[in-house]
Specification:
The protein contains 4 helices and 13 strands. The protein is α+β, with helices and mostly antiparallel strands. It has one domain (about 15-155, about 170-220): Jelly Rolls (Sandwich), CATH 2.60.120. A hairpin with a 2-residue loop joins β2 and β3 (about 55-60). The chain is globular and about 75 Å long. The structure holds fe (ii) ion. Fe (ii) ion (FE2) binds near residues 119, 121, 195 and 210.
Amino acid sequence: MINDDSFTKQIIGINPEPIGIFDLHASKHEEYKKMIINIFESADNKYKQKFKTEPFTEHICNNLNQNIFVDFPLLNKLKIEINQMIIEFIKDIGYFTDEIIITDAWLNNASAKSKLEWHYHANSVVSGNYFVNYNPNYHSPLLFWNDRVRLSMAERFPSIQIQKNSNKNTVFNTNVIGTNPKEGQIILWRSQLIHGYDLPNKSDNRLTLSFNSIPKICTDGNGRYSFKIEV
Ligand SMILES: [Fe+2]
């Protein structure tokens, strides 16, 4: 028997993952919300999409050659603000960038019963979601897969598993990690994070605006493995 004072312990987390949470001022959010609801109500059919994998969700501008900020320029002020948030997110976590390009942006209207399949965004560095109409009592939160758990499940080589204690949830054994979004918030993340939600929405009109972005200059710092996007 070891005495209680035989050792002390600390268990620390490494590989931290930044998630940016930005709150729009309430008056700005109300202005953009009205515009976006109006777009949903009046957009031409050529801008609307429904995908087999999400039968209860309607999208606007989620096709190649469509971008909500290009096809609906009345949202330009919102685009400028999201642009600024992405630059601050990249700078705050310790990298240089002065210009980013929102390469893709689209709207999502998720009805009751809808889920969002687990996925990540290719061809992007920072992705995000603006929660336009969102009530946490009825709408599902955005969740992220815990890379630590996901990677060990995805690797198909022989491995040793230890049974999970389902009565003890920690950041090290949980499959998914939530963000508890609020309406009017914009959440940013590294585009390769797998995200979605498998808890169906309990009511209609979970409205979000999704986007992808890439810094205009991507460089290793020496200019050797680098490129600059000219638009
Ligand atoms: Fe996504």
